[in-house]
Design goal:
alpha/beta; 4-stranded mixed β-sheet; 135 residues; globular
């Protein structure tokens, strides 16, 4: 069973835990622990600068760890609701739904999915839609 921690209150913790559980089940993954943290723009900008050399706030960062760590496989997803809200507004999307999509996207990265190519981005979008339809 996956241990799921939620930090912050952009979405209800039980909703996030249920969503992460749905992702892990849909992907048939063995994951020991997932942490989802909601943070502010300065913090995510600093993380993005330090870990990706991009000096700007972003919507989501994922930090996977594998089974060699004492806690097992899994990782941490860090989400900035302010950036998600801005992007949702620009795209005419519902903020709460955009947050849910961002959680799925971040956890898919933890599970090894990549979106650095057009094909990878399309596959992640497809997986996200399927997971949210089932959740």
């Amino acid at each position: 069973m996956t241990e799921i921690d939620v930090h912050g209150d952009a979405l209800d913790g039980s909703e996030v835990r249920e969503l992460v559980g749905s992702i892990v089940a849909a992907e048939q993954a063995r994951v020991a622990k997932v942490s989802v943290s909601f943070t502010d723009e300065p913090t995510i900008r600093d993380l993005n600068r330090r870990h990706r050399a991009k000096d700007k706030a972003t919507d989501v960062l994922s930090y996977p760890f594998d089974g060699s760590f004492p806690q097992g496989s899994g990782g941490e997803v860090v989400i900035c609701p302010a950036v998600v809200e801005r992007l949702a507004r620009e795209d005419g999307r519902d903020f709460r739904q955009a947050l849910r999509e961002t959680v799925v996207h971040g956890v898919l990265h933890l599970l090894g999915h990549e979106d650095g190519t057009d094909a990878g981005a399309r596959e992640m979008d497809r997986r996200t839609r399927l997971i949210l339809e089932e959740a």
